[in-house]
Amino acid sequence: MKSDLAIFGGAPVIPAGMIKPWPPIDELDRQYVLSSLEGTVHSFGPNCVELEKEFAAWNGNKYAITTNSGTAALHMAVAACGCGAGDEVIVPAYSWSSSATCVLHHNCLPVFVDIDWPTMNIDVEKIEAAITEKTKAIIVVHLHGLTVNMEKVLGLARKYNLKVIEDACQAHGATFKGKKAGLWGDCAAFSFNQNKCLCSGEGGMLVTDDEAINQAARMVWSFGETRTPVETRDYHAYALGWMYRNNDLTAAFGRSQLKKLDRYLAAQKENAAVLLEELKDIPGLILPVEPAGHGHNWYNFTVRVEPEAAGYQGQPDEFRDRVMQALQAEGVPVGVYQRFILPRMTVFQARNAYGHGCPWECVHARKIFYRPEDFPVAERHARNHFGLTYPLRLPNGPEVAEKIGEAFRKVFDNVAFLQDIPVKT
Q: Can you give the pTM of this predicted structure?
């Protein structure tokens, strides 16, 4: 019945307060953060140094540089891989904006490639057609915590002598053929933002096994200097540099959370497995996949909708938005990750990042234009998808996943009444 739906006055499936916030804070976090606060260095300090060592050891890299954001780490990666004015960097057409704006930050041009529908990641079969004489690197985004097929990407990189940058901001602990994200490319960027699997509020990390990339990245990271803050600095800028360093308080929080990360990831996988089972065989609902050889970390649980299969007459985005409103009323905190494909964003349509058309009008650049219709899979995904993040994370357990499944079934069992929900604009 229509009145059963919470959005029309029925009782919600999930009571207020059942879903707990992320991340869980315990005495270990308080100990680390308060110890830092009571210390004498609150800029780049001893916790920053230790976080770099501990994260490198956890992920399996030789070098790690802690940053103030994942975006900073991505820009450092582009610069450290030798990308400069007029160079082109291949990027998926659907991702967070930083996956592409990091290319602009170093006066390079992003070249977009459509995504693969099942995985939501870059379509590795379409990368080669986008490579030109100007291509310098490929940025692969392990979106929502599912790794890209790195063997195929590295095969192309070797063939055309390209650098590979992993945007692993959402991919802590995700694997491809048993090998962690961040160990495949020339370097990788992780984020420690509030919603990431490893949360320190803000922050990030660049990792690499290449000493030259590590050194070049550290110059970008600290004013173009060649000596780090823990060394005797001469305060001389040897190259273009920024101030992307982390601070001791944030790093202290990151260190305490890192000690619990394996437990967090195990819980996410367990909860995701429960939710997949709860949601299977719902008409009109497309579930996320974990292809053979890929180890998903379930940073996001992203689904897509098929209105006709659900018995709904209307556009996919309209149906998606009404389903979300109904689920939110049932107590499920769902949302849209990104409504726009990257080539639709104003900075790329205007082709004017720095004024006067730069970097697209740079004398070293090839003429590049962005037509959204060239990326039909990404466009379809942007209209069809929604998902959730925090409910599958500790301290939430399988009982929450079961309740979420119950809410989904309740909403999809009452598709006929969704037409009566006003679509928010």
A: 0.96
